[in-house]
Amino acid sequence: MESETKNLVGQSRIPLLNWLPSYSKALLSGDIMAGSIVAIVLLPQAMAYAMLAGLPPQIGLYSCVLPILLYAALGSSRTLAVGPVGLMSLMVGEVIGGLNLSSGADVLFVAVSLALLSGGLLVLMFVLRFGSIVNFISHPVLSGFTSAAALIIGVSQLKQMLGLDMPRAAHFYETTINLVNAAHTINPATAVLGIAGIAVISGIRTPVLNRFLVGLLPKLLYAVVSKSGPLIAVIGGTVFVWVFELDRTSGVTIVGEIPSGLPRLSFPRGDWEMFVQLLPMATVIAIVGFLESVSVAKALASKKRQKIDANQELLALGCANIGAAFSGGYPVAGGLGRSMVNFSAGANTQLASVLTALLIAFSLIFLTPLLYYLPRAVLAAIIIVAVFGLFDLKTLKHVWEYDKAEAACLLVTFFAVLIIGIEWGILLGALVSIGIHLQRSSEPHIAIVGRVGNTEHFRNIERHSVTTCSRVIAMRVDENLYFANTSFLEDYIMALIADNQQAKHLVLICSAVNKIDSSALELLDTLIERLRYVGVNLHLAEVKGPVMDQLKKTSFLVRLQPGQVFLSTHVAMQTLDSGQNFTTDPDFSSE
Amino acid sequence: MESETKNLVGQSRIPLLNWLPSYSKALLSGDIMAGSIVAIVLLPQAMAYAMLAGLPPQIGLYSCVLPILLYAALGSSRTLAVGPVGLMSLMVGEVIGGLNLSSGADVLFVAVSLALLSGGLLVLMFVLRFGSIVNFISHPVLSGFTSAAALIIGVSQLKQMLGLDMPRAAHFYETTINLVNAAHTINPATAVLGIAGIAVISGIRTPVLNRFLVGLLPKLLYAVVSKSGPLIAVIGGTVFVWVFELDRTSGVTIVGEIPSGLPRLSFPRGDWEMFVQLLPMATVIAIVGFLESVSVAKALASKKRQKIDANQELLALGCANIGAAFSGGYPVAGGLGRSMVNFSAGANTQLASVLTALLIAFSLIFLTPLLYYLPRAVLAAIIIVAVFGLFDLKTLKHVWEYDKAEAACLLVTFFAVLIIGIEWGILLGALVSIGIHLQRSSEPHIAIVGRVGNTEHFRNIERHSVTTCSRVIAMRVDENLYFANTSFLEDYIMALIADNQQAKHLVLICSAVNKIDSSALELLDTLIERLRYVGVNLHLAEVKGPVMDQLKKTSFLVRLQPGQVFLSTHVAMQTLDSGQNFTTDPDFSSE
After folding, report:
1. Which residue of A125, A334, B394, B423 is 20 to 30 Å from A209, comparing CA positions?
2. Has residue B433 been placed in a domain?
3. A176 & A263 share domain
4. Tally of structural domains, chain B
5. A135 vs B484: CB contact, 8 Å cut-off?
6. Is the pLDDT of residue A87 over 80?
7. Cβ atoms A385, A64 nearer than 8 A
8. pLDDT tens-place string over residues A321-337
9. How close is the nearest chain B Cα to the Cα of A46, in Å?
10. Is A216 exposed, middle or buried (0-12, 13-18, 19+ CB in 10 A)?
11. What CATH code is carried by the domain that includes residue A469?
């Protein structure tokens, strides 16, 4: 086990030990640059996401110190930037909103418990090598879920961005209704700040402004400025509120006092009853966070021909989340946008992330008083811009063109997440996509084949001009033989035999059969009996090596006799046809 | 739709109209013989099963009149014998036991409701063409479920067979504990009757006695006697109790008064709250009954090259169950043992079943007073002998040899049904078997292939001596490409490219790929980009017709360029290798 893991991750169980000893100065400038820029992006983002989760802003910052350091030591990705992310913040917020907690201490306890539980689940999945569980979530389900989450997040931020006076709601439809009812309570000053925030953050990304900045600024400064939209909005908004005293005169909600100093390390309290209640959502948080992190890490690693070890990521993300729990934070993952910033700003190793963590720690110690007048509307603007790109109509369009049933699955997930909630919505989507897959393979494509001209090739009699033989039927099943399609296959073959009274041999061509499960083996046994009863012998052809190995474990090949397993359809037809009908085959041209 | 159905069932929506008009006298003797023998088997069995379900014995007989007549008219099987069966009686009993009903009227109401609900569900499945839902239950799951059910049924009958004084329990483990605790309350007279019953019923089936009887009796009488074990036990037991007054002197429980006369037709009362509560179990009853009936019907039909239409069976069984509900019966299905008796006694058409129903009706009108002294221990013996054959260790042995994971799935189902109950046990088993299937196909067999000698064949480089080329990698994936294996495939290909730095082309051989879903298409798009970034072109080869048709719906083939789709691996290697390395290929022998 040890050596296997070593191979996968390179040299050691702790990836840090692979790159740190051989660290060269040439890598340093890139790492410093990237680490600083990510800190600038992360500082306001972490506070904004914490507030999306219904938590005080410092909790977001606490989640950016120890977790980042732990991931830097254990993660197999060189450039993944860990910290609070939108989807998980939304889910934490949904849990907190649904529990009707009275005290702030309870809210923090739930956040810490979720981090501890999802971290523990990830480590458990690492121990059990269960990383493959994420395989059961298909691309359409993920896309539908992400779009729905983006919509929920965006709508939930309108309250803060426009300064509406409305109660917090657990469900999307309640939030929407509350928004409409509270539309008249809009706070003009807040709305101006929020809309200006969106304009600054998204404006600085527009191609026109980008080209202008490239010409104006030195290259290094440009790299910093072009990523600093959120920071500029934060500084501008804070100064504006402070100068015009908008918090007192115009009712603009501000962040207020943030306790300064690093998070205190503490052992999270245990409450079994609460843990049991939180477990379903913690599972979804763990899986979604793992999915997002690994897909981002893989995309970045492939650009440098580096490898990601999904199981190592389970360990690293698990430890990062447990670290978050021990330092008063909430669940973290590798974020897409932030990691892209890290990568494109030149990060070479996780040293960049170490620097990010140190800069966030510095801010926690010295800069929190400066954030007193930061308007929440600006934080809401940061989130809205961040999630806007997640709303994914393109995938729906592509999937719709390609496969209507999968598109339906995407839409089911999207609406289910909006209507019945995140964890049940994503579960329903996953079940529907598995159901579609099983349903499809339960009615496989079956071709009756014949010989093409004078060759050894056998093709579908409905698509090609081929020679057949009335005594021998050759059928190719284009699917694994397993429980979901045994019934279809049974009906198909018995109908085939009923319709071809002259047939004496049936050759089942297994070139597309990668697996025969025990239900299908049982069916083959039944078919041997039933076909023999009506004077037909069953044969197999082109059985693959692994399938043959498994069949040999049983006495099936004995029960098949006088039926045989032929290497190729050609040999089967040559042997069984006894020289009849194949006028095109030179070997049998005497008849 | 109409014409399609006509084709499948022969000529008409009502199969009765196919065989009755052309009925010939030659068929009559077989039908009369079979119908009479089945009635002899069914009379005691129906009462025994009703009592297994916790119902008065006449309910079992009521379930043998109208339901049998309806199935005879609508069923696509010529020989299936419908009526109460063990598995469904057990499930009805579990529902009744779990509800803690006080009055006998409530018990009857639940039984009738279950028949109405499961009948309605079957007709609904017929309308929606949902017969394929049964495909999702694999053979090991079914075997595990049947064995567990046989065990539960057998154990539950020990109380009646031995005359134990113990309370009725809802769960198997409670029943077992109660049995052990009540072992000392055994009633000697009852136990003697019960054991004698088992001896008579199973004794008459033994080869030795059978050979003796064949020599002794005329052929016709032998056919009747050899199936009459239950009836002989019933008559013997009844006479014994009546003569020695065992019910009063020795505490033998007797059936007592059975109301004589046919069931009254009545419209079942509706109680929505109860219906909602019964729905999950009614669904399982409907599916299990359908599964058992169709598999028995298929097995018998194949012996005469007849066809079974699964959707027509949904309609016929649905109507039979609704008929049971309207005539005071409980859920019915086609039983294995009884149908085998019917078939082997010479039944040619459902006229045999019509006769069975008429004989049961006759018994209800005239013979019920004779059953007053029938000891319940004999009915329990009938059930125990009937379910003994269902306990299926052979399948476990076969599946264990063939595939350990599927054997585990069988055992999970077996113990889950015993421990957590029938409907959740079977659901868990189905989910586990689907999970195993997905897990398997999520790590497909992948072969890197090379040219075999001087041929156009390409085989696994690990199994065969083949020629390869360092610039072109040809890999064959032996599985459909779909969401469960995209992640594995991505990792495999990126590692392959990282390990083969000279590679310029990757050919994905799709000869075993019957389906590419949208998640896999997304992966292929990602791979095109990532491979291009590191200087490798992706190509496809041997893509099947239906898969190619679907790919052509998108702009994938444009995005693939300069990658191509080759007709065969041979053509791909010829084109991409540019004459290098293939010293064995005559076309490129110049180098």
Report:
1. A334
2. no
3. yes
4. 2
5. yes
6. yes
7. no
8. 999 999 999 999 998 77
9. 30
10. exposed
11. 3.30.750.24
